[in-house]
Amino acid sequence: MTLGEAEYDYDLLVIGSGPGGQKAAISAAKLGKRVCVVERRDMVGGVSAHTGTIPSKTLREAVLYLTGLSMREVYGQSYRVKQDITIHDLMARTQHVIGREIEVVRAQLLRNHVELIIGTGRFLDPHTVGIEGGGERRQVTAANIVIATGTRPARPPQVEFDDGRVIDSDGILSLERIPESMVVVGAGVIGIEYASMFAALGSRVTVVERRPRMLDFCDPEVVESLKFHLRDLSVTFRFGEDVEKVEVGRNGTVTTLASGKRIPAQTVMYSAGRQGVTDRLGLEKAGLSADDRGRISVDGQYRTDVPHIFAVGDVIGFPALAATSMEQGRLASLHAFGEPANELRAIQPFGIYTIPEISFCGRTEEELTGESVPYEVGVSRYRELARGQIEGDSYGMLKLLVSPSTRQLLGVHVFGTGAADLVHVGQAVMGCGGTVDYLVDTVFNFPTLSEAYKVAALDATNKLRALDRFDM
Fold first, then answer.
1. Which residue, among 248, 275, 263, has the nearest Cα to 156 in the 3D structure?
2. DSSP state of 375
């Protein structure tokens, strides 16, 4: 390709093969561009495939199956598929899925004629990347470059991690046994997901969080329901507490809080956020820089301060979800080559894979109240649904927030079995400007959990009808 006077090896070079990098590369290849992806040999598929989304969600499914937790409503509280669950039982399924996912990524790149260059990339100048791997060094040039290097767990400097007793979320996959007790420092998404998994396995879990509440971007009623179920699994919460120190001994650890409380446990897991993997990229050679969390700033088209260099995925910060990273990669690629592209829709779903799981899109009651926006609530509980009884889920719920004036959906919040799948029905209705009446007049398969939408919609419209009668 000729750009001005310059001749480049590739039209697009992507650093990183996670969800964002994959979709950026494939999108450019579909346009007939010459594309390469630079990735380390042991990280094809990115953090998502190796230590993040794929293994953690597979681990969750293994926990749910082997513990029989989701079927105890039907078969009794002592029901288990396997009595003595080992870390090998959990990792066998996890490693199988990771292996298959890596194969899928490789096949997709190969099928789309994207060259996979194995090694570690580093900028030499704004258009040149040096690659080192397998004992070899080479340089490649590209007209456009996408940075999709992802993140790694942030490690506070005062904490001595030993990858055995004191670990981060990556260290979960290297545990030799299921701990009898665990302290989880940080009640963010990753911390609470792993806290719920190990609690389901029978570990005594204590969650320490410096803030007064957890998951404060979620619906408070849903979060309270999750806390109730986690406490039922013997999880202890310590909110408004700072960790002063962690001491490691032969028999485990003792976590000392600033308030003076001391918590003994076999293992301590820190979930202190994520750090962008940018420290070895040589950003300064490209005319770029990162913030103290290793994140790179971009504009609405995912361009960095250097117009032909883009960044996508977790490395640019919020929302740092695999699903949004994929779209960011695709859009960045289209923008790089001047192709027409719609922006990401404002209504984005969030899925939190705790046990039970949470998913939502749109506004929360707190947000609407804070902005003085009127709304009505429609609720359906799984115990009212035939499918809820079949699934053994008597605690799940679906909540709709509805505008009294336009009758449009303002928010959808789901808690329980299949939440991350169910939310997409509400997302589609909201995205198309549909109203609660559409859900009332729609026939849903029976018996399904999707029927919860009709029940919640009827609940909301009955409340709206009562208001209309009063106004008359």
1. 275
2. -
Binding-site entries: 57, 121, 186-193, 209, 273, 314
CB atoms within 10 A of CB 156: 12
Domains and CATH numbers, the chain: 2-153+275-336 (3.50.50.60), 166-272 (3.50.50.60), 356-471 (3.30.390.30)
Instruction: Write out the binding residues for FAD.
Output: 57, 121, 314
| Residue set of the binding site for NAD(+) | 186-193, 209, 273
Tens digit of pLDDT at every position of the chain (472 positions): 444 446 899 999 999 999 999 999 999 999 999 999 999 988 999 999 998 999 999 999 999 999 998 888 888 888 888 888 999 999 999 999 999 999 999 999 999 999 999 999 999 999 999 999 877 899 999 999 999 999 999 998 888 898 889 999 999 988 999 999 999 999 999 999 999 999 999 999 999 999 999 999 999 999 999 999 999 999 999 999 999 999 998 889 999 999 999 999 999 999 988 999 999 999 999 999 999 999 999 999 999 999 999 999 999 998 889 999 999 999 999 999 999 988 877 789 999 999 999 999 999 999 999 999 999 999 999 999 999 999 999 899 999 999 999 999 999 999 999 999 999 999 999 999 999 999 999 999 999 999 999 999 999 999 999 877 776 5
The whole-model pTM stands at 0.93
C-alpha distances in Å from residue 468, one per residue of 373, 440, 463? 18, 18, 9
